[in-house]
Protein 1
Amino acid sequence: MDANGSRYHALVVRDDWLGHVPEDGPWEWLPDDAAHPAALGQLVLKPLLFEFKASAAAALPEPTSRAGGVFDAYGNLYSLTADGTAIRVWSSGSGTITDFWPLPEPATAEPAPGAFGPCAPTVPATPLVMDALTVTTGHYLVVASIAAGGLLIFDLHGGGPPLPQPWTHMPAPEALLALDDGGIALFSAGMLHRLGPDLRPCVPRVPSPSAFAPGPAPEPPPPAPPCVLPLGADATAVAALPQGRILVMRFKLDGLYLSVIDWAGAETVSVGPLEDLIQDTTAGRSESQLSSRTLAVEWPEEGDGFNAIVLGASGDQAFRFKGDAAGNFELLREFIPLRRYQAGGLASLAPGQVLHRFPAARAFYAGGDRWLPLLTLSRPRCEREGELVGPEWDSATPGCVWHRVALDARRPPGSALKLQSRAADTPEGLRLQPWRDEPDLQPHPAGSELRWREPAITACKEVQTLTCLLQAATGRYLQLRILASGDGQQSPGLASLRAWYPRFSYLQHYLPAVYRADAASSAFTERFLALFEGELTRWEDRIAAAQLLLDARTAPRDTLDWLANWLALAFDGSTGPQRRRALLRHATRVHARRGTVPGMLLAATLAWEPDEVDAEPWLAAPESLPERLDGVRLQELFGLAPPLAASAWRPGQGRAALLARLGGSEQLRGDAAREVQLQQALGFLPLAAREEQALMTSWRLADLPDDEPRPRQDAFDAYLDATQPCAPLRQRWQDYLARRWRRIALLNAAWGTGWRGFDRIPSPLRLPAGSVALADWWRFEAQIVRALGPAHRFRVVLPLPGGPGRVDFDELARRRAAVERAVERDKPAHTVAEIRFGFELFRVGEARLGHDTRLEHGLLRRPELAALTSASLWPPFVLGERDLGGGQLTHPRPLPPPDRVGLDR
């Protein structure tokens, strides 16, 4: 409701729009976020599949069983030549295609005249013809050959020549499939023949009677998959799926069908004809012809399910059908062109496998003399016209004058939107009213009216608020109709629609009655003043809602930085709007703890954790952050100073015990042997004595007094005045004594001395004589001086993000950089901070056991990365950019399992 009491009916979310769109209509919902179907998106003209218009030349021949290729675990692609006499390999490292087997015979030089040699030239051997190949999960390359009388098995781990595997009466192979259990399946003439993990043909189990007396009946073994699975004479191509399922393409009288079948013979409902699915979604509505012998399964890099790839018979285009676990298939409206395809077949990568040379490709086709990635080309096509009839909106006011319509929409060049309306006081009368054309929709200069929603789609510059003033929409009920049109390549998008009512009349409220005397002129004056009313009401709304700008929960996104300036808050560029609103609400707590340990933990946690994580509990109670099991840790380095050894001297043992350990000498400085003796007795070296000894040597003083000299010595006074700025440890010693004793008289009484001031006490070069003075000296050297190195230094320890999924190293680097900026901004000026990951702390002399210890794996030792072999997931080391354990020097090559028996041993 605005300042004048006008309200609106609206269509905003997906269900609002789809409730008025017929199922077979030309409209389709384009979600803004596929993970949240209720998110604000756009209603667009239905996208269509772009079909390449093939030339009049003859269609390509159907590929034979030798067509197609297969990848191994390292990304190398194996395929047969057109005549089947050689195996070619496309190396993932070099990108070259070479002969894998048989290797060419080395050239032999002709014998010299008069030398021994063959009487007749050697007859070349007839090349072996191979029919199909595949790579098993055990990393064996298996080739089926009728000419060889069975199988040829290559050990891709151990290398060497192939091992012949005879198979009597082997059927003519049309395709070989790799199964999950390590075996393979041979497809021939509508039959699927299974071979076990030992790569031997499966033999049916025949129970034999026992000659012994029957005993207790044993438990029946689990049913084994059948050795031969009949698929039917109409099965033309097959592909393997996980969990023992087979994707089957069937050629029937009315076209091609796709279905999923398991080894028990259970088949899901077939989907097809595929030609009809393509025809229904094609811009030209032409009848597509598909290849009945080319089928491949494509595994998306992210997400569930799989894609079935089918080629056009002309070899110019591929079609992708998205499948799910239930066996349902949906045609994806994507244009996948083929370049120089000559019926060479397809090859697809295994799930989770990525080629570093083609990171975006999941399938490849044989184009010319090389393999090319199967990529999607952007060729948008859509319906050209669409009509959308809105609901019958009720104002609950007879004779209501409907005010205006605001439409958040995207109107690209070549598209148009037309608005029509009709109004009446009864629903029956509304349906009898003719549609009235409204004025053209014009962009509203103020932008969207739904700023409180802050959807991503309205933040897009292409979406604008189009508005028009309703001319003669008078009645209790209103209905709108939108006529959309496009050029077939771009479609307008409808995001939200609002119809405002009733109209606040300046003519009725502010002008004398004489202006309403004539009906024609008053109608014009009413519409004319409504133009100004719309703009002035917007100003009145902003004035009435000015207090909302001061509340972080209701302030528009653009005003958050303005509010932060009032509270002296500085937002990082990577901080999202929700996190900024939370910081504004808890600004007092943030300022009160800035520079403290909870404040630094809070700043680092907010910078490290993604914006999707709720920050309210951290901001409300920053003291609870150290208790998070998987949270950021802060280590104050003075706490990492190692304690003194148990055998080191303590003041409670007395001065005599220390002198006994030091050989009776009281000197705290000396040669290397003396320093070793001091280290063993005290557990540390007196650094203040080392500093004082160096100053004395430069000043050429023979000795320093242990008490105030009597009479006064000018040389000692001059020495203190000249060296005081150069003796930081002496200054700390004097400050320590001043804080401990407060007055020099108390120190003299306890020490038995007569010093005139704390600033005249030098660092001791000998063991103090009294027990109190000796204890003060020990506390200063053992506790204060030893803690000076890590003082005012702290370390922020970052945890690695947990959970399954791919580790994004670039995202880790961005989040670490955000933590560095936050720590540098909020830390006290006199402190020094460093940022490390948890796995970096385990170094010699730095690992500690305590509440802030994190037992973490390095990036390359993460469980979700240990099973992957793709080099593209692990970036190479870059000096100064990558962390230890965050990269690799060479491509990983998984070793074979220890129980694997190679063909060469």
Protein 2
Amino acid sequence: MALVAVVPFVAALLAPFLHRFTGRFTGWLLALVPAAIFVFLLSFVERVVGGEAIKVSFAWVPAYHLNLSFYLDGLSLVFALTISGIGALIVLYSGAYLEGHRHQGRFFTFMLAFMGAMLGLVLADSLLALFLFWELTSVTSFLLIGFDHGRQASRRGAIQALVITNIGGMALLAGAILVSQIAGTWDMSALRETGDLLRQSGFYGLVLFCFIVAAFTKSAQFPLHFWLPNAMEAPTPVSAFLHSATMVQAGVYLLARMTPVLGGTQVWTTVLVVFGGLTLIWGGLGALKQTDLKQILAQTTIASLGLLVLLIGLGSEASIAAMVVYFVAHAFYKAALFMVAGAVDHETGTRDITVLRGLADKMPVTFIAAALAALSMIGLPLTIGYFAKEEMYLGLLSGDPTQIATLVILVVGNALLAGVAMLVMIRPFLGEAVPTPREPHEAPIAMLVGPILLGGLAIVAGILPEWLGHDVLQPASLAILGRAVESHLSLALDFTSLLLWLSVLTWLLGIAVYRQADGARTVLRRIDNAMRWNADTVFDDVMFGLIRFSGAVTRFLHHGRLELYLVVVFGALALALFGPLLVWSGFDWLVPAADLGNWWIRFDLSSLTFYEWGVVLLAAAGLVVVVISPTRLTAILSLGVQGTALALIFLLFGAPDLAFTQFMIEVLSVAVLAFVMARLNLDRRDARPPEDWLRDGSIALVCGVGVTLMLMQVLSGTLDTRLSDLFTATSVPIAHGHNIVNVILVDYRGFDTLGEISVVMGAGIAIIALMRVRKVVQVKKPRAPRKRKEPA
């Protein structure tokens, strides 16, 4: 089962190379990958319908007991089948839609990688694996939305989607860490066994906030919905895939998956119902403002996502059943309608419904696909959308005022969606034909297979309610609620049932919305234009302010004055030295400083040999020369004297390896400094004002005293030799080295050493580049005087 998430990534790597040899048939060949995954997943249907859950786990980071686990139950199977099935049709569609595009191979790579990320997301059992695939969907969707990177609108839409969804990704990571600390497990399947542990935890509110932020950013809930319409700058196949059954449904999947452990509380229900209902109405009204087919469908996607979140928030058996059925219905009709919009744009050159009429005669198959999908979106009988709508209303007939208010919101929201579906189905295709930028004709077969098949499935599922209830509804509801919801879906129409009359009311209101769409669009656009700010402009203002703030901070910190950099560095060192002494020891650190005489006795200088005295005097001489050096070159060499004296001290006190390392460092440092300053006047003395001497001297004394006091504190305590004993005992058997210093540098702190080497290498390259810079002076040649023409 783990291969389901891996195979698309392998296919993504091979896609550009395959495209070079197969050309226009690449879409047909690559569509076999998700089709094979779909068929493979179908083999699990019988076991999952029977109530079995399949789990596969691999050791990921054994030292931290982290496993890469995948889990297949009714909920993940429905999502995975939808992703792979619609994905196969989208890949096939993309081959024809982008035929001849110079980056079509790259597009297939992005699309298949995104598909793998989504399959990994819905199959992952570990919260950390879920987060990994969650972020991969953000990255791959960024690449897909910004595919046409030559246009500023595409780049902006991609960046906006990446920023918003990554905020949710960070919230998801925080929530996952909190859950693992509270419940003691990373696996979502194991969280069910913890019962009310999370709900009774004092951190429940914080965990809930993290998961809601993650879900709301991904599934475009108000007020974080604004990125989704801007993502329509992506090619139409991307819109059909991302915004029907994949990325935007990830937040819905997360909420459904976490319902058993986080749901059922008042705050859960209130937040999801309120924001879901607001998003439903907002998206429905937003669709009426648009005239572009893709923008209309994008706004209805926002509304549908709000509807799904509202149903999850209600949490009853009927609402969860409605959520499952509506997810499938929405995936069918929305993917089909997006592909229809792409076909219309591809063959006519426009998506504006105000200039499209009478396409049914020239594009009859496309019209049939649009009609089948739109009928399911309206929710007419014999479509899967009808059963989804019936289930929504079923759980809200108790007469409770809150449920009545929720029922009104659902009826109004579904009426808005029905009216918009009529617009999409009727306006472009019926009526008297009008001229379009290109002469309309039927789309290629590869662009028609998807919408016809999905529109047909919406009808087939609607006339097979027993299959829908038994094989789809019951397994998914078992995964969400922990108990199977009894299916009562039926084709029988009860004219005495309030549910049927609520559906009739929805259809009548939908017709009214369709008939008043033009007037409503005018009013809504006037209101929109009167508003000074909206979420989209606020995002731009925030991003612009962030860029300006970053620039100001950069100019403040990177001002180019080296002496101020050093003042800040050594000032921070002084704080780092004295801060812990004051916090941890108060003024007790003054005791060893006041007992300086005892320290002088402890280090009996009379026992030093003449050569040890020579090293001490050499160090002192180097220090004095550095301070009073008359030229820059003398100061550089004096620094080398200081380092050499330190290396000799290491050598005399039994650390030859360390001494050798110090010698190498000093030689290299002096050589580099001399090399860098070779183009300067090294025989000059830098004139420095007295205030600089006072500032730098004070900082130097404070740092010197701080280092001395810190060392005195350390040496006054008991030496803990556990670390040095570990190095001594394991240097040979583990690292196979007798030079302990080298073993520490290469093995025990190898990554740290690698980082230091990389820094030194980068600095060396920068130094070489600076030394090779030559000042180029352009001299303009004088223009030759223009010869005057002699008169004829």
Protein 3
Amino acid sequence: MQQISSPTEGEKSPSHDSVVIKAHTSAKETTFSQNRYTHQTSQDQGEVYLIAEESAALVIVHGDEKQKDFGNQILVALDANRFKVKAVKFETQELPFLVKGGEGLYSIIIFQNLLTYINLREVDRSLIDGYCQRYKVGIVAFTGPSLDNEYSMKVGNFPLVMDKKMTLKDLSLNSESPVFHITKTKRTLSGILPGEDWTVFRSNHSTYQSIALAKTRTQDMLNLVPDSKPILHTTVIHDLGHYDGIQRVLFGSDFTLWLHYILFLDSVRFLSGGRLSVDLKRYILVDVDDIFVGSAGIRMKRIDVEAMLVEQDILAKLVPGFRFNLGFSGKFFQRGTDEENLGDERLLKHADKFWWFPHMWNHMQPHKYNSSSKMIQDMKKNKQFAQDNWIPVHKGYAVAPHHSGVYPVQEELYSSWKSVWQIEATSTEEYPHLRPSRNRRGFIHKGIMVIPRQTCGLFTHTNFFREYPGGRSRLDKSINGGELFRTVINTPFYLMMQKKAKKSNRFMCSGLDKYPTCNSTPVETAKKYFEIFPKEKDPLWRNPCEDSRHLEIWSSKKSCSKLPQLVVVGPQKTGTTALYSFLSLHPYIRSNLPSEKTFEELQFFSGPNYNNGLDWYMKYFPGGKNNSDQYRFEKSATYFDSPYAATRVHALLPTAKIIAILTNPANRSYSWYQHMKVHEDKAALNHSFYEVITAGSDSGRSVKSLQKRCLEPGKYATHLYRWLKYFPKQILIIDGNQLRDDPVSVMSKVQRFIGIQPRLDYKHFLRYDSRKGFFCIIKRKGKSECLGKSKGRIYPPMEPRAVEYLNLYYRQHNLQLHSLLENYGLTVPDWLVKDLARPPQG
């Protein structure tokens, strides 16, 4: 391929006087004039186009089942690097919104198959290209397998030709390319390249620059000709954007060649302007587990200890400051053969050359302890053993046998660690699940940082290089493009554990010479982890009974049958307390025990109580395995409009049924204001309702806070959509007016929804109280028991201007709610039908 430094005479870019960028599928399309475009970093006059801070990669996957696997590989690569991704199967889905609020939503657009991009409809191609030109967004595309008999074809309207169905060898890189970040520019791959269906690119246009080049397999024959120069074919090409203002990187094959994986990540970084980038620095920590543990005959001998010291010195040259981190269980010291006992002594002699962390004294799993006092006692034994033998335990880090108690959380372990060892950090491979390893994350609980650990399938059950399952070839494959290779590439934190430290460690650090590396202490590593990934600090409690592995390391004293099957999510001031009382009348329906602070509401999924952990939540649900006939529920009206409650409820209670009660949002807003006024909220006492709901940005903090709680929950469609996303077929919508006026029929509907048997005939348990103005519970001897004074108050009428303001304020939200309910096949409340039938005002 010829490389031309400047455009040749006569070259012209195609004219695009205006390009349409899709703003909304059902709304008007917005047209941006090309000559008004200014890059976001430009100081020139003109309109500035910005990429949203939380931008993502848009991936257009191919519909062909034969190519489905590679589409998944692209998505996995992006997800493993924690890039936000939107995937679209373009044959069956519309092009998604590209712009929202004037900001571009995507930093890069990726086509699994180049032909999908080339053959887009004119309107869709115009949308994609226009967006890329305006927002300086690049495109990555792969050629995919040849689906026809052509060996050469022109690429759309581009000055580019593809030659297909080639076999290649000896790949090299163009060191002049600006794309490289992870990739070593001087790397060459000698020998036959995998696959027989390569595509190469050729063009004389200055916009194209080679990234990777290779020879054909017949090149050796040509090289026999005197003075002949090898012909290099471009396998990965960079469109510099000279032709039409869009930069692209095109690949002539998929990830079968492992180098393409890192070239792909480099291309994503370069074409996204660094927004989607892999950090080069790597934090290395190798825990050597079970020191002194093991039956006689398989433990470390003196020669093994010496080999470990030599290995540590070698690794320190690759990773400055490297030390093995040894986890000890003191009970097993000097319990091996004579040779192994000499190995124990040798470890203690060189104890200051390693880092050390406490395992359990007797290697017992935390969930098997009968009491926290026994656990603390054993930890103290291990601590005394360390002091007696001058073991320099590295402050602040510990690991539990088999990760028991770390996740799913055993509260006694966390409190005992704090009490005895002042633990600040630990690690596990169990959160959120063991597999796939790329999805492992960290969290912080009770002040202890839990960081994810990788295993890569290396030496978790074997000790010697020759014993690696599958032999040397399988190990090489793991290093060259396989699980180990991708673990190093995908995460800046490289936490490993093995049973013994042998020469295998060199392989675990293979490929790290490209990266700046450090061997920080475990606590320093944990702090750095949450500095880089701050969003992971808050845990997401999942149902232990949904994972067989988690059940193995969860206490037998606990049971998922205690968890509720129904959650009443609110919103506030819609009748949730009344529904709670009516449900509690059923002999087979049990609510949670009351909380001292929040009474019948636990408010677990929407507030600070979530940080108390799963054990805290479960203690409020009585019974266990012997109470399987009980149908459990909880009601917390703060859940409905919480931005994260739906995600949390679904993680812990994926099969739960959800009830939401909706009333006219204007009335709900007014009721909340009056509620706060009764509770002597200063903002409510000092300002009228109209003043609160119309308060401007310059109003005091207390007024703005009250305004938010009055108005925000009533944007029902926004909040309900979050719940429908997780529970599309498990939600019942109750009309709050109907619950007030005809609770008997509503409770019949509720019982059918949850499937309870036998059903209760509520006409024998509820009676209308004319004095209170709503239905009350019939108690013994025929007397009625109504809800407290705070419920069912009669308020003065809302002033007309407030009514008019709120009707206009909620009009669009109510239209969206109506559409949402119909789309999901849910009942539309009568009050909503009447509200939308009224002519809009203003």
Protein 4
Amino acid sequence: MALETRRRAGADDGGLHVLKDAILAPAPGEDRSDAPERTTHATFREPAVWDKPAQPASGDAVADLREAIRGKLAYAIGKTPETARERDWFAATALALRDRIVDACQATDASVPNKRVYYLSLEFLIGRLLSDAMNNLGLVETTRAALQSLGVDLGTVEGAEPDAALGNGGLGRLAACFMESMASIGIPAMGYGIRYDHGLFRQTFEDGWQREAPETWLAEGNPWEFARPDATYTIGFGGHVTMAAVSDGVIRRHWYPAETVLAVAHDVPVVGWKGKTVNTLRLWKAESEAPVELAQFNGGDHVGAVSARMRAEAISRVLYPSDSSTAGQELRLRQEYFFTSASLQDLVRRHVAERGDVRSLHDHAAIQLNDTHPAIAVPELMRILLEDHGLQWEDAWHVTTNTLHYTNHTLLPEALETWPVELMERLLPRHMQIIYLINWMHLEEQGRHGRQGETNFAAHLASVSLIDESQGRRVRMGHLAFHGARRVNGVSALHTDLMRSTVFRDLHALDGDKIVNKTNGITFRRWLHNANPGLTRLAVEAVGSGVLDDPGLLRGLDAFAEDPAFVKRYAAARFSRKQALAEIIAERTGIEVDPSALFDVQIKRIHEYKRQLLNVIETVALYQAIKAEPHKDWTPRVKIFGGKAAPSYSQAKLIIKLALDVAKAVNDDPEVADRLKVVFLPNYSVSLAEAIIPAADLSEQISTAGMEASGTGNMKLALNGALTVGTLDGANIEIRDHVGADNIFIFGLDAAGVQARITETNYAQKAIQASPRLGAALDMIASGRFSPDEPNRFRPLTDDLRHRDQYLLTVDFDDYWRAQRQIDAAWKDQARWWAMAIRNTARMAWFSSDRSMREYAEEIWRVQV
């Protein structure tokens, strides 16, 4: 079917050509007459930074881009070069590059892909996009020269782009990496999420306490996106369900929502490597069907007249609103259903317009649920198939369970999402009916298999039921996603094994082939090429430019691990990044650090299981040791922390406060001088990570074994040459297997050891008694040494460690101290250190998200690459 015919039929193209409808139309208020003449195919010029930095791009290309930027500045932004701000230059540059993305779209085969992937995620932590677009289009040096000819610095323009903080951490960043990799290796795909007005909060510190402020990334618009008012869907909430007989023995139910909200699409192009493929990230904005009740407004109730609008728009207002209240829980559920329903309506409409028969959906669409946030897709897709398309239950269930796939990201009980049945029945009454029926048929099947006579059959039914009735009736969203998916995957080998033996043990026993492993990966284009151009240039010179296309060629760097000339240049490239980070630290915290010191980095969401507290306690113990032996030859070390605590997570906020109070005491102590500095960088973000990761010497991956699903920060840091100190948790195990046990520092209990230890009594007290160093550090913290204005401030932390210690910090402390002193010794042997670092960079190729996506495509989605 021709593109124009499909458009008239109501379809929105996705995958390789989904942007054409929107991109070819001007953005609101934009004059496109100044755009350069479009070519019939996308061309790629390898950026000069990968070869010789001094090599200029062709004069014509620079002139074309310069005039395009100048035109956008005048006609789209309405500014002259003399009046333009840095943000204006960024917007003009982004719009000019966006035209070239259109060129890449035009170059793509316009035929309908045989199968598309739809990636549903509540988070897409995409960060800044300018550097990605330039790099993947091969226009880094062209853009630099074009801006320079206008008297503008590219670095300044890049810095003016706000971070799109549409995620909390690894989950959202993984989704962003996967979207980029799918475009780079040619998988037709669309990502679906929410266009939050305010992403993850902006973090500041007030007297050492975390304060949250709205993240206003959309304050001046988003030049990358295309508003798609033609792709608008109605989302219902509440109301009632009716039944009607349509034929003998056939009863149809119909849902009449009490409230409806509009989901309006906004498309962000995702450019693949060398611009060969462009996929789409479609983000939904919530709007009210009746923005203003005019009669009510004219009657004087000006606030009440817009209340419905405000209630609707609240859905896409803030990422992760606090769920500590009943209203907050309801808003979270509204968000999840809102974006899931809009996405399913969109992709089903597209499929029907292209293929005609909804029964073939699973043959042409693979839907991936990124964690349980979109798990409501199971009953929602059933509802769409049953009510909107008239399928029988068995046919709808066959389509649903062969189209949906589910990625689990956590084994933590508190993170396994459940919803009160009462809330679900009130907000989504039709969906609860469907869930009840799915569950009834599921439990009946257990009886048909003759399990009634088994011992503890009732307990078995309770464990596999979609409804948890142990502490109030709640819908288990993980169980729902598991039951409705064709494949369920973990994100590291250990995590997948633990899924089979713990949270999904009984469900796994019913379907032993459903759970598969797909270890996470990262995009090397973002986390090596863009974030560390000096190291990338060195790799290209050593093993050839093919390494830009094939990360596997990085393995060739192994041969240079002990080559003095290469080691010297590798160390120099790393040192330059440490100098840059030292400047950022001084600018943002006022703390001066020595770039020649060991940069010890822990950057991630603040959570007790990630054990930032273990790092802080070891810092206190090291501080005490230096004070006790000030003349000893201590390895100079800078401890660098970054991360945000959830607004309602008081214990995590207290850990941040302790880290900052310890930092103040240590950094102000003249006896310690430059042998130990502690830094907590505020407002951790993707762009800040791009500055920290290439400068890190040591990567702290110290979560309690068995509790981190995978991690991706561990991969980014190791790729850039940081050595890992970590537990045998998540992907740390696979990193050890790839880089070699001699090139990583492992400590602490493994997952089996953790499970054995937590069954013992008084393990924390025993560990503290056996470790005078640990006891002294805890005593110093508890005594008020770091909080003289409030001596008992940190007692909640130390008391918890002495009496509960759920995450086994006390048990692992001594081995952690041992590993850290091994690291001190290794740092003093610089030849050995850099050899280990080079081997980490060389051997991380397997952790490319390109590899992950190929595995998903072949083994889960059944998509040809």
